[in-house]
Amino acid sequence: RADLALYAAKNKGRDNLAIFEHSLDQQARERRSLEADLGEALALDQLRLHFQPIIELETGQATGYEALLRWYHPERGVLGPGEFLSIAEETGLIMPIGDWVIRTALAETVDWAGDFRVAINLSTTQVADPRIVATLSQALRETDFPAHRVELEITEHVLMDQSDANRDTLLKMREMGLRIALDDFGTGFSSLAYLRRFPFDRIKIDRTFVRDLTSDIGSQAIVSTITRLAEAMDMETTAEGVEDRRQLDLLRKLGVKEAQGFLISKPLLAEKISATTIKAEEVAEAPVEKAVIDY
Ligand code: C2E
Ligand code: MG
Ligand code: MG
Ligand code: MG
Among the atoms of ligand 1, which is closest to the Cα of residue 242? Predict the structure, then answer.
């Protein structure tokens, strides 16, 4: 009997291993097929930008729109950057795709009314390629978009490189009149150190702090501290990932200048954007609720 049980267990183990190997195989195949598809996505016009409004907390007015890349895959539906950006990085496709993002973000918004910024995310690979500067200046020229209304969002990874090449590229962008924001602030190893390495125009407070804001005193203290630090260093602040009213009210109370998140609007195709500013105004008109903690 014992032998039989052992035999059964061994067999089961082998089955599980087979299933595991099969799923790894499946994953590798999936990835290769996505890779091949991504190579054609630009030519087949499957990429789109969604824009997420950024509002000023004082007035509720939209002061900016962040361009967020989407892949309208014919079989898999709408894919977010988390599902294909790493493939784009590894295959080198990030450069042509990134260039497309820059040109399209400017072209699709240049005719919108108002004095807003357009925010464009740049990955480390893009900044590390010196051609990015020419791409940007050409896109500005072709669309007639004022450089001071374009904000490039980078993460601190861009500055981790010990050589100063990336920093020099950022400085060149700055000289062109472009604005530079530090995205996902507070999530890295030594976020504070990077504030000294480059004179950012804006700090984007990572959404993990916003998420815990109403339940965690620590997150409130961090947001409050980041806000004061930014003010002292003459940088603007935007909070990411605002999903409910209490977070919004607390952020305003803590002195954060701007916010974006699903509460205000999800990222939307350019043609659907106009409807969201109305909601943004409603957000500002509502009374400020009492915050959990008084600073
Ligand atoms: P990110 O720049 O920090 O962008 C904010 C992310 O938070 C977006 O995810 C946005 O859809 C999401 N978000 C906005 N409001 C809320 C909210 O209230 N709650 C929650 N849970 N999430 C919210 P998305 O679009 O999936 O983009 C992920 C990341 O991919 C971006 O993070 C950015 O780093 C990168 N990315 C997006 N578009 C581009 C692009 O065109 N080029 C490059 N290089 N990177 C991009
Ligand atoms: Mg961003
Ligand atoms: Mg972010
Ligand atoms: Mg992020």
Answer: 18
